[in-house]
Amino acid sequence: MKLGIFLPNGRNGYILSKATSLFNPTFQHNKDISVEGEQNGFDMVLSMMKYRGFGGETGYWDACLETFTLMAGIAAVTNRIELFPSVTLLAHHPAVVARMVATIDDISNGRCGLNVVTGWNKPEYTQMGMWRGDEHYNNRYELAKDYVRALKVLWQEGQATYHSDNFDLEDCACFPQPKHSIKIVAAGQSPAGMRFVAEIGDRNFVTAGIAQLKEIVQRLKASAAERGRAVGTYACIQIIAADSDREAREMTEGLMSDPDTGAIANFISSAKLDTNQGGIAEYMRTSLSRSPEDGNMAFMGMPVVHGSYKRVAEKLDQIADENVQFSKLRGGDSGFRREDIAAHDPRRLSAGMQCSRLT
After folding, report:
1. Would you identify the CATH topology of the domain 4-352?
2. How many C-beta atoms lie closer than 10 Å to residue 163's C-beta?
3. Each residue's pLDDT tens digit, 11-24
4. Residue 173: enclosing H or E segment and its boundaries?
């Protein structure tokens, strides 16, 4: 197992609550997390991209550092950790993204992958005149397949002609080419999203309650196997660790006690527009009443593993053993540190805290 972090490059990280410290994202903050993560054995960092936040009293994600620029900066100050910027398909042409990824590949000496975001949040794109119409909800994974094919043609050939329903590349140049294979990750939980990852992706992000993880992972593995492929899973989990189980539970309950209902309402209002059934947007719409373990909306719908440092390590072991072969830890501003768990129970470190990649 390997351990990864979703960087807090959007305002207030991944906590939709007024009961936490509020902050705007800075390069220094994200750099410090990435450097310290690398020093303590973390294996990957990812930055999301949001062109319009969800407001509310906390101004949730209203400020967001641009993902490719951020990861290029972090590439220059790290040596080992993998880097995943996020492309929102409606905002960037694949020929531009192909070159940006190739540049970060060069800066990082082969540590750059790409997170593919199909874009269900309509207000992000209508403000820029980039929304393709509501048919995009159901067509977006076909666009994603086309987009990744265009990227790979440019990466592999350097100069290529590629024509499709969505793109017209005519003798299009993209030099320098990446010197290393670029891993494609995505968050495909709907049937269409899972087919996309099974056909083209290398890893899949899953945001679901602990009890549902195993079933989702098995469906993805079976779908990929039908296509002669092996695709891995990143399970997205929030960690709240403290000196005692009671303290961690109180922290968790405190965050849930004062959610940013305005931001949550804006998020869900946008998610309700998505007609693609069974996906992450539908999952988010039903998360307000869930327990933290099952993914309450105060934690962006992600399941929370809380407890003492030793307890958290034991729970992550159990998740890995019973639900997914490899898990992924999602980070925010919680201050969770791998060395904290190691210090409390070093025997659990290798088994319980190297969460995340299925190969």
Report:
1. TIM Barrel (3.20.20)
2. 10
3. 999 999 999 999 99
4. strand 168-173
